[in-house]
Model the fold of this input.
Amino acid sequence: MPNFKKSEAIDPEIEEQILKTLEQIEKDHDVKILHAAESGSRAWGVHSPNSDYDVRFIYVRKKDWYLSIYPGRDVIELPINKTYDVSGWDLKKALHLALKSNAVVMEWLQSPITYQGD
Done:
C-alpha cells in the first residue's frame, strides 16, 4: 500500500458523512462494526477528483444470530450513490474467505485509510 497522508485522499466533510453512515448501519442492522476502511483508488493513492469513496467494513452480530439454524444474510450493502459505495461482510464470512486466501480481506485490513477500528 502507498505511504501518504489520509488528508490527501479523504475530504473531511465526506469522512464525517461516512462515520455517520457507519453509526447508522450499526443501529439499523443491530451490528457492531469491528473494522471499516477505504478500498480502491483512494486507498491506493491513485484517485482522481471524481473518484468515489469505497467504504468496506467487517462486523459482528449478536450471538443468537450465529446460533440460528437458519442462515442469515452475511453481507450489508447500501445503495451506491455518486459519492460513496458502502458495504461490509460479517466476521464469519470474512474469516472463511481469509482462510481461502481471499485478497480482498487482506486489502481491507491493510488499507492505509481506516474509518473505524475495534
Observations:
- The chain is about 40% helix and 25% strand.
- Helices lie at 6-9, 12-29, 41-44, 63-67, 91-99, 103-110.
- The mean pLDDT is 91.
- The longest helix spans residues 12-29.
